[in-house]
């Protein structure tokens, strides 16, 4: 998901997407620990997506606090 798409989401949608991505990361890590997954770079991509979501949430909190 691109940053421009994240900006369009509401706060509730961001939180839901964040929890979904965290769950997916947990599943990927578990699957990778049990046996090697087909594409281990997917773990990195999910981690970066979580970081993007957290960044957008923090940016919105800072904007609301400054107003």
Automatic annotation (TrEMBL):
<dbReference type="GO" id="GO:0005840">
    <property type="term" value="C:ribosome"/>
</dbReference>
<dbReference type="Pfam" id="PF00831">
    <property type="entry name" value="Ribosomal_L29"/>
</dbReference>
<dbReference type="GO" id="GO:1990904">
    <property type="term" value="C:ribonucleoprotein complex"/>
</dbReference>
<dbReference type="GO" id="GO:0006412">
    <property type="term" value="P:translation"/>
</dbReference>
<protein>
    <recommendedName>
        <fullName>Large ribosomal subunit protein uL29</fullName>
    </recommendedName>
</protein>
<dbReference type="GO" id="GO:0003735">
    <property type="term" value="F:structural constituent of ribosome"/>
</dbReference>
<dbReference type="InterPro" id="IPR001854">
    <property type="entry name" value="Ribosomal_uL29"/>
</dbReference>
<keyword id="KW-0689">Ribosomal protein</keyword>
<dbReference type="InterPro" id="IPR036049">
    <property type="entry name" value="Ribosomal_uL29_sf"/>
</dbReference>
<keyword id="KW-0687">Ribonucleoprotein</keyword>
<comment type="similarity">
    <text>Belongs to the universal ribosomal protein uL29 family.</text>
</comment>
């Amino acid at each position: 998901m691109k940053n421009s798409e994240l900006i369009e989401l509401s706060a509730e949608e961001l939180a839901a997407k964040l929890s979904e991505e965290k769950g997916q990361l947990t599943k990927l890590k578990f699957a990778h620990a049990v046996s090697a997954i087909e594409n281990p770079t997917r773990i990195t991509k999910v981690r970066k997506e979580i970081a993007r979501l957290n960044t957008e949430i923090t940016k919105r909190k800072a904007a609301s606090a400054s107003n």
